[in-house]
From TrEMBL:
Protein name from the UniProt record: Exodeoxyribonuclease 7 large subunit
Annotated organism of origin: Spiribacter aquaticus
One example GO MF annotation: nucleic acid binding
Subunit structure of this chain's protein: Heterooligomer composed of large and small subunits.
Assigned protein family: Belongs to the XseA family.
Chief place where the protein resides: cytoplasm
Enzyme class: hydrolase
GO CC, alphabetical: cytoplasm; exodeoxyribonuclease VII complex
Keyword presence, Nuclease: yes
Length: 450
């Protein structure tokens, strides 16, 4: 029995990690087919489900980045085929499949996926006739996206050689079935659209089962055809085969041969048409040449009659005169312009606000000084005049007379001035206004003399 120190003891986590490594190394990538059950869709976007058959089951996980690429939505009870890696969920010690790709298994599932994709793309408007382009009536070059070794390209080349051998074709070789077919077809469509080296595209292949035609029922191919700016003809399978690519393309051909006939003109009919056009062109040219020849003869006669050499000399002399007149006119005009510019310059100088402002400022100062002097002189004159008028007023004022010893005699009860002795009677009371004060008296007697 080994001693405790000689034993290698795993923790549960270490054991699960070791087992997971062994499983991943032994079976790096497998395809597994079975029925989906216990499907769970958490908010994370990952899918968790059980894949089972009548005798066994295994847990599976399809993470969000892979689930977003699915063409169909899986459901419980679906028979599917997985491409997956073997893994082990360490927290529970359960082995599981980490799915990288999921597709329906069997023709029934493919048909259901076809119907679902068709309905969804139709709702989005990818089949709308308003989105489809007209095919060119006489393309300069045709592009063909197909297998370079398949029957489809042979049929297309055969039809073009028969109908219009001069029409060149450019082949974009791709796989038309298998896992690499879809990305190859999509990349070829994008490349043709970017290069713009052809006038129309044929996308197609020969007939086959629904599984063989799966690349042309792929959503990526459908969207690439819809986004392509080149007019596109889909020619997939036989006449009874209808694919998503047929519905999205600008036009559907029942077979690759029919697509070649649709895009290539009929060489014999075109030749006959060219001959007819040549005959009409020859006849028209003969008529036009005859008319031009007759017109040249008429113009020649007129030219000879009008002595073109003399007219040329006259025209040359007239040209010299006009040149001299033009020179003189230009010089006169330039001189007038120069004078006008000088006048404008002088006017501008005359209207220069700086001297005017200075003059106005000097005038303002002068006016201010004159106003100040005038106000002082006016005040002096007014003061002298007032003093003179005051003296005159004072000399005329009765107060001045009173100051010299005179008095103003009035009746005691009246305002009138007594000028004559006869204006009062003896015994009447009177009032005598002196320079200072008033006397009340009575008339004792009066003398009528002076």
């Amino acid at each position: 029995m080994d001693s405790p120190d000689a034993r290698h003891v795993y923790t549960v986590s270490d054991l699960n990690q070791t087992v997971r490594g062994l499983l991943e190394q032994a079976l790096p990538l497998v395809w597994v087919e079975g029925e989906i059950s216990n499907l769970a869709r958490p908010r994370s976007g990952h899918l968790y489900f059980t894949l089972k058959d009548p005798d066994a089951q295994v847990r599976c996980a399809l993470f969000r980045n892979r689930a977003m690429r699915l063409r169909t939505t899986p459901a419980n009870g679906d028979q599917v085929r997985l491409r997956a890696r073997i893994g082990l969920y360490a927290p529970r010690g359960e082995y599981q499949l980490i799915a990288e790709h999921l597709e329906p298994a069997g023709d029934g599932a493919l048909q259901r996926a076809f119907a679902e994709l068709k309905a969804r793309l139709e709702r989005e408007g990818l089949f709308d006739p308003a989105c489809k382009q007209a095919l060119p009536s006489l393309p300069r070059r045709i592009g063909v996206i197909t297998s370079p070794t398949g029957a489809a390209i042979r049929d297309i080349v055969s039809v073009l050689r028969r109908r219009f051998p001069a029409l060149p074709i450019l082949i974009y070789p791709v796989a038309v079935q298998g896992a690499q077919a879809t990305p190859a077809i999509v990349e070829a469509i994008h490349r043709a659209d970017q290069r713009q080296e052809v006038d129309a595209l044929i996308v197609g292949r020969g007939g086959g089962s629904l599984e063989d035609l799966q690349a042309f029922n792929d959503e990526a191919v459908a969207r690439a055809i819809h986004a392509c700016s080149l007019p596109t003809v889909s020619a997939v399978g036989h006449e009874v085969d209808v694919t998503i690519a047929d519905l999205v393309a600008d036009e559907r051909a029942a077979t690759p041969s029919a697509a070649a006939e649709r895009l290539s003109p009929d060489g014999e009919a075109l030749g006959r048409r060219v001959q007819q056009q040549q005959a009409r062109l020859s006849k028209g040219l003969s008529r036009v040449l005859g008319e031009r020849r007759e017109r040249i003869h008429r113009l020649t006669r007129r030219l000879n009659a009008q002595h073109p050499g003399r007219r040329l000399r006259d025209r040359a002399q007239r040209l010299d005169e006009l040149d001299q007149r033009l020179g003189r006119a230009v010089r006169v005009r330039m001189a007038e312009r120069a004078r006008h510019v000088e006048r404008v310059h002088q006017r501008l100088q005359a209207q220069n606000p700086t001297p005017r402002i200075q003059r106005l400022s000097d005038t303002t100062d002068q006016l201010a000084r004159r106003l100040d002097r005038g106000v002082r002189e006016l005040i002096t004159r007014k003061r002298t005049r007032v003093e003179a008028q005051a003296r005159t007023l004072d000399s005329l004022s009765p107060l001045g007379t009173l100051a010299r010893g005179y008095a103003i005699i009035q009746p005691r009860d009246g305002q009138a001035v007594i000028h004559r002795a006869t204006d009062v009677a003896v015994g009447d009371p009177i009032r005598a206004r002196l320079r200072e004060g008033t006397l009340i008296a009575r008339v004792e007697d009066h003398d009528e003399g002076s």
